[in-house]
Write a structure and sequence with these properties.
Number of helices: 23
Largest sheet: none
Length: 441
């Protein structure tokens, strides 16, 4: 029986279909273009190849083409009687995912991995900041992901894809040196692995190596197609390094070239999150975007996300709307978040509403109330998901609110708490520069 790159048997007799399936899988797992085209070729070679239809469903989902993704997974379901038990279980995890049943998907995945620890596509659904674990609302989501990968590591050996996520999970849980070594090794094996480049950017960030991080992105990014999934986000990482080096001009230039909605080619959700996060950081760092740029982000947000939805997305919608001056839109968004929390449809719970309200108060220059709300949210900040670098936008906003309020002692206390364990480049020098930039309100 033919096998995939991970040694899993595949229910097809076509060598060409298997080759294209493997190519499509690797392109998807490395965040490169071409996965859908490769899997479509696999299906043309063997229309009854159930797992190819399942991979197609995931590729379409990543492109936010959800109606087509559901048609593809339904086709895989129709064909699964011809598939092995492993393939049937593989398909079922994707069924749960595409049906929005995240808890069931994760439970099915854990059971599946006990029998098939090297089944990469189902495992990938749990990983990263936008995976089943990242959106679970747990306080220990970074540790859960790391522990899952460490448990599976003996089955994987020196695999570039697996080591990408194991390395990144180690970075996010404080073992930055070991994590960076795995990410570097992954890039040696597959230099085009954008997922590893992304994880490595997080490594530079967490180790406080902003200058080296910016140099890394400047070296790696030019060979990555601007239409690829992570191009906009890697440019966003470059802006973080530039800001923390005190080079706001470079950060704003990077934004204009690669992140603005008209210049970004990632999915609407990724584009909106990166734009809103940059918009908010620029504001809280004392370098607000011009009115036309800010309005472009607000218009993009309203067009693609008119209603509250995923918790992590809701935080970023709040960032965009808070600076818009559209009080009705912001209050409507806060009301929708409250309703979703009441209906138990926001896994992180009330902390989502608290942070969104804190952003609203910051934009209204009620810095005392903003700091009160954001400070109350800090103990549960990790519930919102995202990486530590993404979560820092909340901490940075709190510090900025304290400085605006004239409470430098409180700002220093938050800064010291964070820099004692991570993000060491956000230190006293950064605070002094931030205070000088903000100036009088």
């Amino acid at each position: 029986m033919l096998e995939d790159r991970f040694g899993q048997p595949l229910s097809t007799d076509s060598d060409v279909a298997v080759g294209e399936y493997i190519t499509g899988m690797d392109l998807l797992l490395s965040s490169n273009l071409g996965a859908l085209e490769a899997v479509d070729t696999a299906i043309s070679e063997d229309p009854d190849f159930a797992l190819a239809h399942a991979l197609r469903a995931r590729a379409l989902q990543m492109l936010t083409r959800l109606p087509e993704a559901k048609l593809a997974i339904n086709r895989a379901v129709d064909l699964r009687t011809r598939a092995t038990p492993r393939e049937q279980a593989h398909i079922q995890v994707l069924v749960y995912l595409l049906d929005g049943r995240g808890s069931e998907a994760f439970m099915a995945l854990r059971a599946h991995l006990a029998n098939y620890p090297r089944d990469a596509l189902p495992l990938s659904l749990a990983l990263g900041v936008y995976g089943l674990i990242g959106f679970s609302g747990r306080l220990d989501l970074y540790e859960v992901q790391r522990d899952l990968l460490l448990q599976l590591a003996p089955h994987w050996g020196d695999d570039w894809w697996f080591n990408t996520y194991l390395g990144w999970s180690l970075v996010e849980t404080g073992d930055c040196i070991a994590g960076a070594e795995l990410l570097d090794a992954s890039l040696v094996i597959n230099p085009k692995n954008a997922s590893a480049a992304h994880g490595r950017a997080h490594g530079y960030y967490e180790m406080g190596e902003a200058e080296s991080g910016l140099q890394f992105i400047d070296t790696w990014l030019p060979s990555y197609d601007p239409a690829s999934p992570l191009h906009c986000h890697l440019a966003w990482h470059a802006t973080l390094f530039a800001f923390h080096l005190g080079d706001a001009e470079r950060a704003l230039s990077e934004y204009a070239q690669h992140i603005r909605p008209e210049n970004a080619h990632s999915s609407p959700m990724f584009t909106m999150i990166d734009n809103a996060a940059f918009l908010w950081r620029a504001l809280t760092y004392g370098h607000p975007l011009c009115t036309s740029d800010s309005q472009t982000v607000v218009d993009y947000t309203k067009e693609h996300f008119p209603d509250a939805g995923l918790a992590f997305l809701n935080i970023h919608i709040a960032m965009a709307l808070a600076v818009s001056g559209d009080r009705d839109a912001m209050q409507r968004h806060l009301s929708q978040i409250g309703e979703l929390v009441t209906q138990d449809k926001q896994p992180p719970g009330r902390v989502i509403a608290t942070i969104a309200e804190g952003f609203d108060k910051y934009a209204a220059k009620d810095f005392s109330k903003s700091s009160e709300l954001l400070s109350a949210a800090l103990p549960e900040l990790e519930r919102i998901g995202g990486s530590h670098a993404q979560g820092d936008v909340v901490i940075d906003c709190l510090i900025s609110a304290y400085l605006h309020s004239g409470d430098r002692a409180a700002a220093e206390a938050v800064l010291k708490q964070r820099s004692s364990s991570r993000a060491c480049h956000l230190n006293q020098d950064w605070l002094d520069r931030l205070e000088a930039t903000l100036g009088p309100v």
